[in-house]
Amino acid sequence: MTASFRDPCPRTVKNSVPSFSGDNQFRAWPREKHGEPRPNKKTLDLRLVNERVKLIDGVVGRARQGFKRIRSGSVRSASQVVPPELWQQIFSYLSTSLDVKAVSLTCTCFRQLAQPLLFSKMSIHPAPPALALHSFQTNKYRRRASQRLEFFLSPLIAPAVRECWIHSPSVEDDGLPTDLLMDTIFDGLRKLPNLKVLGCQSVRLTSKRLEALHALTLTTVTLESCLSDLTDFTLHPALPLSSVTFRYHDSSSRDGILPPLFSLFLSPCHLQRLSATSPEILSAITLRRPFTRLLQLELPADCLADFESFVAALSHLPNLERITLTTNPDGRPPPRATALSALPTSLLPHLNFYRGPHNYAALFSYTGRMHTLELTLPAKAHRLLHTLSHLPPETHHALDFLSFRLAGPVPTSLLESVHTLLPALRTLGINDPAVQPSHLHALLTCTAPRPHIRSFRIRVEGRGRDNPWIPPMEEASDAVDCFKKIRAEVERVYPGLGTLKLLYGVEGGAVVWRRDGATGKLVQAAILQ
Question: Which domain of life is it from (predicted)?
Answer without folding.
Answer: Eukaryota
